[in-house]
Specification:
Immunoglobulin-like; binds 2-acetamido-2-deoxy-beta-D-glucopyranose; 9% helix
Amino acid sequence: MAISLQYSHILILLLVLAFALPSSTSSQPTRLFHFNVQWKQVRRLCYTKSLLTINGEYPGPTIIVHEGDNVEIKVSNQVARNTTIHWHGIRQMRTGWSDGPAYVTQCPIAPGGTYTYKFRVIDQRGTLWWHAHYSWQRASIYGAFIIYPRMPYPFSSSIQEEFPIIFGEWWNADTEAVEKEMMLLGKGPNNSDAYTINGLPGPLYQCSNKETYIKNVEPGNTYLLRIINAALRNELFFAVANHTFTVVEIDATYTKSFTTTAIMLAPGQTINVLLEANQEPGGLFVMAARPYLTSLFPFDNSTTIGFLRYKKRKIGKFPPPVMSYSLPDNLPSMEDTFFATDFLSKLHSLGSASYPCRVPEIVNKRVISTISLNLQDCPGNRTCTGFRNMSFFASMNNQSFIRPSRSILEFHYRNLTGFPLSTAFPEKPPHPFNYTGVDSVAENMKTEFGTKLLEVPFGMKLEIVLQDTNFLNPENHPIHVHGHNFFIVGRGFGNFDENVDPENYNLVDPPERNTVAVPMGGWAAIRLIADNPGVWFIHCHLEEHTSWGLAMGLIVKSGSKPDECLLPPPNDFPSCGKF
Ligand SMILES: *[C@@H]1O[C@H](CO)[C@@H](O)[C@H](O)[C@H]1NC(C)=O
Ligand SMILES: *[C@@H]1O[C@H](CO)[C@@H](O)[C@H](O)[C@H]1NC(C)=O
Ligand SMILES: *[C@@H]1O[C@H](CO)[C@@H](O)[C@H](O)[C@H]1NC(C)=O
Ligand SMILES: *[C@@H]1O[C@H](CO)[C@@H](O)[C@H](O)[C@H]1NC(C)=O
Ligand SMILES: *[C@@H]1O[C@H](CO)[C@@H](O)[C@H](O)[C@H]1NC(C)=O
Ligand SMILES: *[C@@H]1O[C@H](CO)[C@@H](O)[C@H](O)[C@H]1NC(C)=O
Ligand SMILES: *[C@@H]1O[C@H](CO)[C@@H](O)[C@H](O)[C@H]1NC(C)=O
Ligand SMILES: *[C@@H]1O[C@H](CO)[C@@H](O)[C@H](O)[C@H]1NC(C)=O
Ligand SMILES: *[C@@H]1O[C@H](CO)[C@@H](O)[C@H](O)[C@H]1NC(C)=O
């Protein structure tokens, strides 16, 4: 008895050792994945098209790893198009070469080419996702990226099962053609034909009864829903009839838990919620997602639904799907800014002893940037069909970001300064004006084009205030920062006031994310520690805004210690020719 007790102590000790995170990567397991970029004939809405997929799957395969694992994903491009993949939200400590945005960190993987993305998942746990980062390929090339924790979940609940809920958008058209046409004509892009849940539009769309997501549940069980907004153009509301959600995690960081009747999720964001199957056996409940509309432009305003189906008392029997239903009462209306604002204000970092909130209380630099749409004379001798026959663009601090034809990260690593890059990204708007009060059809809504980056030393504590403008259209913009998580210390409507607003910042338990939904006609202040050397894309995750230049690049210089330096590029790194 005594002996076995001793052994069990040793066993526990060994387990603790095995689960502690050593600084060397070699002792951690390496998870290998193969991603083949392939065409696949897929039928939705009575329409069959060739869809770009990973391994023929739509949505793509789920990546499952543990915190601390090394990950290697070999991507083989088997189509006659360029591609890249981005591991959305993965910190990529010192491994910017594996981050993925085309022409920011890498050149595309050419047709027939392969590239193995290699990185380690460090101090992150929960739900993230991955998607193509070339043209508009992410419409069909996306999937979940699940990181299991080394320690038990900090929320006291027994979870019987978990499942992903991934929102997407389906176009009957080729989405690369949608982007090309939009850029050529200077107009807004064609709307998608449907929103989807796990690739399925559901019965509110023509001939989609069979393409409906149905999740069978056991009465009395608790489920963990890993929810991802992979849509290209809209924030979404989501609710399940007669059920509530308990929010426990956002963007792979734990939150203080709270109960809500619905959620708002911006493109790029993820959220984990618990759902108690507390209804009667045999019940059928509608789950629905529809956009949070903050734009005056016409958008896809349709609704995708699926079902939560309770097992009947008789073991193994589920009710047949009934195609008569009404939308959940608890689904917010499409203009419900009050719900969206209230919901986001409830998100707080967990801030426990095991998961402290590491928000910088003081910062070394504050950058204030407008995020804006713009209107430009139609380029070249073309005829534009956008507003006033002009061409839409977008900018940050009046700089419309042009991605060069080479990797910016490679320029940086090789110390090549000068044209086409500069580190002169303006740290304040060009001149103070009433950002949210300006006439939305002002005479001069022009912008400047270039590739100006913000360069900061290693370890800098940085604040970025993102200020929406009224140019053309005040709108909720989901701004995504690559390579870093940040803390959302403040948000508000109207113009940011540097003398007043910082006094009301939450520097105790602000939510930690990689994508912030900046309020329509308002601002958001984010703080981060620039502790990841490399070049990082910062951009609006509404896809047309990235195409129009609502983006910038953040250069974090290497530090003085070896482990503060960007690693050299891997041997198979796709480069656009010799430097
Ligand atoms: C693929 O990318 C390379 C490198 O940027 C470029 O030269 C080529 O034109 C692209 N090919 C296609 C089909 O877009
Ligand atoms: C966009 O929509 C217009 C009008 O329906 C159509 O003529 C055009 O072909 C569409 N463009 C693409 C790329 O599908
Ligand atoms: C679900 O909620 C609706 C409206 O809130 C209510 O009418 C209905 O009876 C509820 N269904 C069940 C099974 O409780
Ligand atoms: C969706 O938009 C169309 C036109 O863009 C409009 O006719 C329709 O009423 C809208 N539907 C809803 C539910 O708002
Ligand atoms: C525009 O058209 C004129 C006359 O056809 C031509 O000389 C000029 O080069 C064109 N400009 C551009 C930018 O294509
Ligand atoms: C836009 O261009 C079209 C065709 O070129 C023309 O008929 C129309 O009058 C123009 N509209 C404006 C506002 O200039
Ligand atoms: C770039 O400059 C740094 C600092 O001067 C130097 O340590 C590094 O070796 C240079 N890198 C290359 C690729 O020349
Ligand atoms: C900005 O413009 C709006 C709308 O005209 C107005 O209500 C607001 O007071 C203005 N703000 C400032 C700081 O001038
Ligand atoms: C942005 O830049 C353009 C081109 O230089 C200029 O015309 C415009 O006035 C600038 N906008 C603002 C808000 O400063």
